[in-house]
Amino acid sequence: xxxxxxxxxxxxxxxxxxxxxxxxxxxxxxxxxxxxxxxxxxxxxxxxxxxxxxxxxxxxxxxxxxxxxxxxxxxxxxxxxxxxxxxxxxxxxxxxxxxxxxxxxxxxxxxxxxxxxxxxxxxxxxxxxxxxxxxxxxxxxxxxxxxxxxxxxxxxxxxxxxxxxxxxxxxxxxxxxxxxxxxxxxxxxxxxxxxxxxxxxxxxxxxxxxxxxxxxxxxxxxxxxxxxxxxxxxxxxxxxxxxxxxxxxxxxxxxxxxxxxxxxxxxxxxxxxxxxxxxxxxxxxxxxxxxxxxxxxxxxxxxxxxxxxxxxxxxxxxxxxxxxxxxxxxxxxxxxxxxxxxxxxxxxxxxxxxxxxxxxxxxxxx
Length: 366
Description:
By secondary structure, the chain is α+β, with helices and mostly antiparallel strands. The protein has 3 domains: 1-57, Multidrug-efflux Transporter Regulator, Chain: A, Domain 2 (Orthogonal Bundle); 81-240, Beta-Lactamase (2-Layer Sandwich); 260-365, no CATH class. The protein contains 10 helices and 14 strands.
């Protein structure tokens, strides 16, 4: 635990008056905490750092150094808080971290606390160029990373340190890195990600000022990352609502046509066509027994790679409903992941088609 000194003892250590100590703490030049009673308490390590800065009697130079640090934090805070787009936010974080610490690479990852899995969101060099993302990995494979995320403490790895984590050193040697700084991203007490800052040229002993800046920037980055995620979820929600509203309007308009089908084949064709138009689908197929009908839409949107129901290149929604002595199945292939309400609307189209088909079969029997 850090040793805390009162104003008088701090003044004696620095060779200045208590009034000067109070003025320095009020301006932010000398960090301090407050007791319950409001009395100032200063960490001994902060006093030692200021003592080095003012050792030559140049208080102005020391003040300028601290003011630059505060200016950096303010400018970074403004830059990060103004970014709600995740991609732009990641680039902004990397730019500030590599600039402040004079390093060459910054990797930003998100952390799943439940599975203890890390997923790399972005990997930038100091010029802002983005490198290919890595595959997700378990922190159980990297003891130091696991400790950083669990204990929420920073860590430094130098390539030739015999005490360094062997797993981290192996990756560093493979990539040609000399020093690594690990800083957890913590939001409301939870570890949500990790900043890794890499020096490609030299081994490092980061100064207390650099470490203080790194932790402060990581705190701002954690808030920015959380806000960007919330904004992204809201934006996706708005998009899903618009999609669902449009699909609902098209389905309601087309249901009379589906129900008006007079034969089994017409009902299947109407269901497939309605589903394709309603959801701007890549394709749709309606089957019942040995009969089937299909429809296709705009295939230019078929580039999606993540899937709702796992396929190779698309999202597939399937609805099955009784149809006489058999079942009618409506399969819809979408270019985007199915939103809330999509499955229910596909089932409604299938049910309407099944009723029309069953009625057609009854009329043919009569």
